[in-house]
UniProtKB/TrEMBL annotation:
Record-given protein name: SpoIVB peptidase
Keywords: Hydrolase, Protease, Serine protease
Annotated ranges, domain Peptidase S55: 189-428
Biological source species: Paraliobacillus quinghaiensis
Pfam family, one: PDZ_6
Listed GO MF terms: serine-type peptidase activity
InterPro entries, per database record: PDZ, PDZ_6, PDZ_sf, Peptidase_S1_PA, Peptidase_S55, SpoIVB
Name of the encoding gene: spoIVB
The keyword Hydrolase is assigned to this record: yes
UniProt cross-references to Gene3D superfamilies, sorted A to Z: 2.30.42.10
Residues in the signal sequence: none
Length: 430
């Protein structure tokens, strides 16, 4: 009995010790040391690593002119490449940190207001409606199990790009008393449906009982432009259909200049909105090739409106973003890009692509007076901190329009197909 009690006491002691280990300061500090650090070369900013006390020293494991020790917890980047920092206790290694120093990557920050014109993949079903028949009303589309959010890709094996194509095929099938063979995309699945056009007695025409749409338009803000690749990124979030609330799958699209005419201020519970006119010139600013959770992306065909920030600016990784002062670039009148003060309330170090990496608060009195905070159309406004492009504004908090989410710039660059590790990969290949 005594032996069992002793074992239970020892087990409880070990459990308490194990659970409390993360809260013991030296162990907590040790656990806070990352295994890998990736950063851009910057001679003006030191790399700081956690210190473990007077008895623990740090040393450069590889003297390859990538890092230079300033003291036991700070190092200066000398060139791009790979290096390691080793924590030593009594001359014995206890922790190794791999350091990857990338060459500085620069893009031109945006801030310009842009109009977005999207051509959907196929035509999008956005609703059902009833057709008047002899014995009442019905929706042929609903009876054929064609749902809101479905994308009509083909009808009778003909590729569908415009709503007008549907109208012609419906009339032909109705007059010939034949069903339509419809191929739809629902999520990741491709399905076939048989749809029978029905003659509407009141309208005197054949109908299928579906509301459909083949395009969408809106406004947003340019985030960046890469002068080397001509690629750009904007908005920082996906464009969804206003009726289905589902992301729009695009066939193609264009961006055009946008002129801000007025702003509806945001209040608690009601987000504000920029009002604008789109300048549909003969030649758009660029094409849209991707609509993703990280924004819209494509290539520029024309130069953007000139701003004070036309020169390429270095970017920062999520690990380099700091809580504190920053600025956003956006338009609140006509086409004039201005800088406004914000505060980075929180920033998450993200190792994999993810949205909502930052919480941003508007603190600029001029912007607050004009907009009430973050408004629709401001999505994509670039965020600049200490001379570096760190991300973009994406969403507003409905209950606090002065604050919202931001996305880290590295994920937008990644989604645009821009490889910030390209130089490193070229060195390794050679």
């Amino acid at each position: 009995m005594k032996i069992n009690n002793i074992r239970a006491a020892i087990g409880m002691l070990l459990l308490v010790t194990f659970l409390s280990m993360p809260f013991i300061k030296p162990i907590h500090q040790y656990l806070s040391i990352p295994n890998q650090i990736t950063l851009f070369q910057d001679t003006n900013e030191a790399l700081s690593v956690p210190a473990l006390g007077n008895n623990v020293d740090t040393a450069l494991a590889q003297q390859n002119n990538v890092l230079e020790a300033m003291n036991f917890s700070q190092f200066k980047t000398v060139s791009s490449g790979e290096s390691s920092i080793v924590y030593e206790l009594a001359g014995l290694p206890i922790k190794k940190v791999n350091v990857d120093v990338l060459s500085e990557y620069k893009v031109v920050p945006g801030g310009q207001s842009i109009g977005v014109n999207l051509q959907t993949l196929g035509v999008l079903v956005v609703g059902h409606h009833k057709v008047n028949v002899d014995d009442g009303q019905k929706s042929p589309g609903e009876e054929a199990d064609i749902q809101v959010g479905d994308i009509i890709l083909r009808v009778n094996n003909k590729e569908i790009e415009k709503m007008e194509q549907i109208t012609k095929l419906v009339n032909e099938a109705g007059r010939n008393d034949k069903p339509l063979d419809v191929t739809i995309k629902r999520g990741e699945k491709t399905l076939k449906k048989e749809l029978i056009p029905t003659h509407d007695e009141k309208e005197d025409k054949y109908q299928i009982g579906l509301y459909i749409r083949d395009s969408a338009a809106g406004i947003g803000t340019m985030t960046f432009y890469d002068p080397k690749t001509k690629k750009y990124g904007a908005l920082g979030h996906v464009i969804s259909d206003m009726d289905t609330r589902k992301p729009i799958q695009i066939h193609d699209g264009t961006i055009v200049k946008s002129n801000i005419t007025s702003i509806q201020k945001g209040n608690n519970g009601t987000p504000g909105e920029k009002q604008a006119t789109l300048e549909n010139d003969d030649v758009p600013l660029g094409t849209i090739t991707k609509n993703s959770p990280f924004g819209v992306f494509g290539s520029l065909d024309k130069d953007l409106e000139s701003t004070k920030w036309n020169e390429p600016m270095p970017i920062a990784l999520s690990s380099q973003v700091k809580e504190g002062p920053a600025q956003i670039l956006t338009v609140v009148e006509d086409q004039k890009v201005e800088a406004f003060d914000v505060e980075i309330v929180n920033s998450v170090v993200q190792k994999n692509p993810a949205t909502k990496g930052m919480i941003v608060k508007i603190i600029d009195d001029k912007l607050l007076d004009k907009t009430g905070g973050i408004v629709q159309g401001m999505s994509g406004s670039p965020i600049i901190q200490e001379g570096k492009l760190i991300g973009a504004v994406t969403h507003v908090f409905v209950n606090d329009p002065t604050s919202g989410y931001g996305i880290h710039i590295e994920w937008m660059l990644n989604e645009a197909g821009i490889d910030i590790y390209e130089e490193k990969e070229e060195k390794q290949a050679s």
